[in-house]
Design goal:
The chain is of the alpha+beta class and about 100 residues long. The chain has helices at about 20-30, 60-65, 70-80; strands at about 5-10, 40-45, 50-60, 85-90, 95, 100-105. The protein contains three helices and six strands.
Length: about 100
């Protein structure tokens, strides 16, 4: 069974600099540390500073769906002012240039 990536994004209520977004991301990052089923999360900010989100790598779709509850969506809405959009994709193969390997997931 391949891993699942969830691409979560949301519009920001106002433009943010990378420094502003980084500070906000740092404030929420601890809640994802050691979260069951979550292998990795990368936060992102678009070049225009108007959309942000995260790319999450999950052990399974079920693990991801346990995270994205109505309460979590309300947290995002409260923190960023807009409803998050979630796109799920399967990720069967990984190219890892840091480790110099290709792996089936």
């Amino acid at each position: 069974m391949s891993k699942v990536i969830a691409i979560v994004s949301f519009k920001l209520p106002q433009q943010q600099t990378l420094e502003q977004a980084t500070a906000t991301f740092q404030s929420t990052a601890p809640k994802y540390l050691n979260l069951p089923g979550l292998l990795r999360k990368n936060y992102f900010l678009t070049g225009d500073g108007m959309r942000a989100g995260g790319v999450y790598v999950w052990e399974s779709r079920q693990a991801a769906e346990r995270m994205y509850t109505p309460e979590w969506k309300a947290f995002v809405r409260g923190k960023y002012g807009n409803e998050p959009e979630i796109v799920y994709v399967d990720t069967p193969v990984l190219v890892d240039n840091e480790q110099g390997r290709i792996a089936n997931l």
